[in-house]
Amino acid sequence: MSDTAGRTLVPLHLTGLARRITPAQTLRRAQLLVDRSGLLPAVEAALHHQVGAPREFTARALLTGLAVHALRLEEMHLTRVLDTIAGLPPAALRDLGLTGEATYRMLWHAYTFLIRALETGTLATPHNHPQQPPRAGEPSAPCPGSCPHMPVSIGEFAGRLLDASLPESFPLTGVMAIDSTDYETWARRRAWTPKPDVDPDQVPVKDTPPPRRKRPPNEPGWPRTGADGRLMHTVDPQAREGYRSGTNAAPGNVFCGHDLHLGVNARALGAPEVPFVITAMHLAPAGSHKGEAGIALIDQHLARRPHTSEVIADRGYTYCTPTRWAYPVRTRGLEPVIDLHPQQRGTHPGPLAGTVIIDGTLFTDALPHPLRDLPGFPIGMRTDEKTKLRARYDHRAAYAFTPHSRPDTDGYQRFKGPALAGHLRCPNHPRSLRLPHTRPTTGCRPGTDCACGKTVTLGPDIMAWTRQRTVWGTTAWATDYGRRAAVESGNAEIKTHRLHMDRGFTRVFGTTKNSVLIAFALAGLNHILLRAWHTKRDQPDPWAGPAGEETTERALPGPRKRARRRETSLDALLSGAPPG
Asked: Fewer Cβ in 10 A, N or C end of the chain?
């Protein structure tokens, strides 16, 4: 068994011992994660003050304790984090600044101080120079260029942790696949409504099936109106209602909690497989606008990976209005690879005479009518049927306009006709008639003004909802969009295989409190994913060197050879031949 690069894959059941991390390795990697994130000075400035008794539970103990517990891939309960800290060696506790027994009150107090600093915007890396208080009516003096002072938002906090969970030597591909998954609140539901108040700018969903059992009546005073104007159904102040799609043969339904948006490293087109590590996360109340949450996720990723060039997104994002998704994506210099909702498909007039827009692509009007209205790809469609249908889309792609240049900074982009691109033969363009007869020949009348050999410049508002570099439905598009399996793999890792991030994974209320714990959990998951991916390919752990561990990996055992049951064959025994 081998991967796309031809590397031999070791069966997973033979990599168990090599994949495990010892307690000493866990502590070293947690300390390295905290140091590389650069968050310790900011948290120390928020927790430790110049006046009053010194804090017994230090900022390093808080961050390191959360990191150690996250590397164990357990539920992020503060009580369990406290047990993890209590189980550290005495020397490690002294290094963390803990001189006595750590109590839950100490941990909770430090944790709530960190959350308060994040929510009020006061968490920031400290200045490295003395500050003079500004005079009345005058702005404060600017910091010198070497001053590390910078505010740390919750997005910055999560981004630093995820970035620190990847070795400096680990190259990213420049391709980002994004998706969202449901994260249900721990709070008990106190009210129900006939229809959830989700953002209207989202993919239309079918009516959810009725509950299997009768819902209890709403409790007095519920639902309430939250600070954002939406209905609250629990005591969790930011938890809201939202839709989640059906999985594992379960129908879609309504839940109360948050949408967890993930950005995952996907392989480049035509390149070998890579580890599907998580590079960005954004937690938003369920039912919020997916486009705005997706842009916040992309900005968090681009803050540390500015050379990213592609983003792969499903229709949950691309169905949003262009001003809240497509325009911001292209403004950031990203090439979108998208899927189309049935309402995004169809035939529309083109911007130039002799052109037509079909399924988000500009075609010449010479496109045969049997190729204009092709069916979609429903769930459960057989593989052979998909292959035949994609062959029809491939035949239609020969009549499409292709990009002649990259989009300009203002969003304008040039496209060239199919005859000019050498994809088909047109009698109105003699040069195209030199092409082999294997290329389709249009039925354009000679002397007519057709668009097969023209170039057109499209503005940012033309086909902004559906424009992408490959023709939707073709084999090339399926290969391009199929790389989105990276983020689906990430969802499976956090939901099913490793983290089991279901209801109760965290037992705190509020977006910020949950975001901090989930960010640590995902950073720990990246460590385990990298180790497992390289171990399965019999390669050294990329974190072994930075963590000061031995980089010499022992050879993994091969399949056990079956023992021979007989010294001679049964035929030899029956014939009376001597053994051997």
From this structure: C
Q: In what order do the strands lie in the sheet with 355-358?
A: 347-349, 355-358, 361-364
CA distance 180 to 284: 10
DSSP 93-142: HHHTT--S---HHHHHHHHHHHHHHHHHT--EEPPSS--PPPPTTSPPPP
Name the phi and psi angles at 250, rounded to 5.
-95, 140
pLDDT tens across 398-450, in order? 999 999 888 887 888 999 999 999 999 999 999 999 999 999 999 999 988 89
Distance from C-alpha of 301 to C-alpha of 160, rounded to nearest angstrom: 10
157 CB burial (10 A radius; 0-12, 13-18, 19+)? buried
47 Cβ contact partners less than 8 Å away, ≥ 6 residues apart: 55, 58, 59, 62, 110, 113, 114
Q: How many CA atoms lie within 13 A of 272 on its CB side?
A: 6
3-class SS of residue 298: helix
Q: Give the SS3 label for residue 349.
A: strand
Is the separation of the CB atoms in 276 and 302 below 8 Å? no
Report the 3 state secondary structure along 137-161.
Answer: CCCCCCCCCCCCCEECCHHHHHHHH
In terms of phi and psi (left: phi > 0; alpha: psi -120 to 50; beta: otherwise), the region of 86 is alpha
Q: In degrees rounded to 5, what are phi and psi of residue 238?
A: -110, -5
- Which pairs count as long-range contacts for 115-122, CB under 8 Å and 24+ apart, including other chains? 115/510, 115/512, 115/513, 115/516, 117/46, 118/152, 118/153, 118/154, 118/157, 118/512, 118/516, 119/512, 121/151, 121/153, 122/46
Q: What are the φ and ψ backbone dihedral angles of 363, each rounded to 5 degrees?
A: -120, 160
What does the pLDDT read at residue 128? 66
The pTM score is 0.89
Residue 222 pLDDT > 90, yes or no? Answer: yes
Q: Which two tokens stand for residue 532?
A: 């497992």
Note the pLDDT of residue 131.
Answer: 67
Identify the bridge partners of residue 261 per DSSP, sorted by sequence position.
180, 282
How many whole angstroms separate alpha carbon 96 and alpha carbon 381? Answer: 57
Q: How far is CA 418 from the centre of its chain?
A: 36
Residue pLDDT, tens place only, 503-531: 999 999 999 999 999 999 999 999 999 99
End-to-end C-alpha distance for the chain, whole angstroms:
35
Q: What number of residues does the chain have? A: 580
> Cα–chain-centroid distance for residue 480?
17
Is residue 216 very low, low, confident or very high in pLDDT (cuts 50, 70, 90)? Answer: confident
Report residue 258: phi and psi, to 5°. Answer: -130, 160
Decide if 536 contacts 9 (C-beta within 8 A): yes
Token pair recorded at residue 515 = 């975001």
Q: Taking a C-beta distance cutoff of 8 angstroms, is the pair 277, 522 a contact?
A: no
Residue recorded with tokens 């087109």: 269
- DSSP at 464: T
Is the torsion defined by CA of 564, 565, 569, 573 positive or negative?
positive
